[in-house]
Amino acid sequence: MNMKPFPFQKQVVRQAETFHGRALISADMGLGKTAMSLWYAARNDATPAVIVCPASLKWQWQTEAMKVLGWRVSVCEGMKPHARKLDDRITIINYDILNAWLPLLKAMRPVLVVLDECQYLAHPQTIRTKAVRQLCKGVPHVLALSGTPLVNRPIELFPVLNILRPGTFSSRFSFGLEYCGGRRGRWGWEFKGATKTGELHELLTSKVMIRRRKQDVLKELPNKIRQVVPVDIKKPSEYRKAQDDFIGWLQTQDPAAAVRAKRAQAVTRAGYLLRLAARLKCKAVVDWVNEWLNDTDEKLVLFAVHTKMIEALHRRIEAKSVVVDGSHSGKDRKHAVEQFQRDSRTRLLIGNIQAAGVGLNLTQASTVAFAELPWQPGAVTQAEDRCHRIGQDQPVWIHYLVAHGTVEEGRCRIIQAKQNVLSSVLDGGRVEGDLDVFEEFIQQLEVKR
Q1: pTM, entire model
Q2: Dist CA 62 CA 232 (whole Å)
């Protein structure tokens, strides 16, 4: 294994084993449900494994499998199944296409199925829930993951509980009568309530559910937890054309720029590819932020570089938010920060890294996300420390939302390496190297051409 688990993560894996590999792991966001599932698979030789998750999380699972275990994985894409894709120990697929791939996945005879964000299975009659039930039939190990498995009513838990423990949770009607305030309504039986909640909690924790909250494990966590989150881009063919035939693509977009680009192609190419990747991943970033805010009641600080990205994020993200960028005066910035810190309904601050990345105290949030990264590794660390500072009593989670399959991935790796060099200089250590991100990035691009 390439990563060492925290003690509480080891405990969760062992408890899942005492549940004979059929467990609902309900841990707060950021506590490593993905890694715990992968460690479970490795410890119990539970492969081949199938990971079912929302489309936005597929590449994150791929990255984590490589980082945690060093395993290669297959990622299913599209509605036309290909058997050649399913040749690794782990296969990742999203809920939306699962039904189309079901025959091939069943033919693999999976030993483990992991159902990430299992609240997607709240309704028993949906195509996705029926497909998951079919996939899990006869599979010895099934792990369901969610920080918030219960979104509205206890009855929504039943499909997952039935998949995990069909012997204990065999009848939706009986479950609804006992724990969901079952009563006859105008159109038949309704299960809209919650009854005997203490008894239900005891049943869940004794039979199937493993619960971990941040406050339970704070002492075991480091001060900062950084995570790269690969996100999809729209129109990948457009990005590929720009990457493979940059001048030809640019000629159709901006002829004057194409002429200039011939004189400084490498620099121009780098800038355009980064901006194009940012534009094409914008929807995925919005989806990630909306899902994160829906999964927790915490606040989030979201950083970007370009004005257009900040405007698009502010316009599209559902939550009440404030913006801090170069167009705001010092007084306006102060008002925005105070609103974010004091108003419980304002859960998102969107900041330009240059304007909001220094001098602000944002300790009401313990999670930072980057929709875009600057060139300076020190500027990234400074922005992270708006939340990681005196007054912060929780570990700070940091997510880099990186466009999968683009030059953003390489630049992010370079910036993280340079951050390690900076930390070594400032705090002591043996990591050495120069700090010129741009030159290394340009060289990386030239090698890949």
Answers
A1: 0.70
A2: 13
DSSP state of 166: T
Domains in the chain with CATH codes: 7-215 (3.40.50.10810), 224-448 (3.40.50.300)
Tell me the torsion sign for CA atoms 280, 286, 289, 295.
Answer: negative
How far apart are the C-alpha atoms of 113 and 142, rounded to whole Å? 5
Q: Report helix, strand and coil shares of the chain as percent, to nearest 5.
A: 50, 15, 35
The pLDDT profile of the chain, 449 residues, written as one tens digit per residue, is 567 888 999 999 999 999 999 999 988 777 889 999 999 999 999 999 999 998 878 888 888 898 889 888 889 988 888 766 666 889 999 999 999 999 999 999 999 999 998 988 988 899 999 999 999 999 999 999 988 777 667 888 899 999 999 999 999 999 988 888 878 877 888 887 878 888 888 888 899 999 988 777 877 777 788 888 888 888 888 888 877 766 566 667 766 665 555 545 667 777 888 888 989 999 999 999 998 998 888 999 999 998 899 999 999 998 899 998 887 666 787 888 889 999 999 999 999 888 887 667 788 898 999 999 888 887 888 788 888 876 777 888 899 999 998 888 888 888 888 777 665 544 455 555 555 676 777 676 655 55
Do 102 and 134 contact (CB within 8 A), yes or no?
yes
**What is the Cα 366 distance to its own chain's centre?**
16
Helical packing angle, 307-316 and 265-295, nearest 10°: 20
417 closest CA partner among 391, 394, 436: 436
The two structure tokens encoding residue 40: 């479970």
How long is the chain? 449
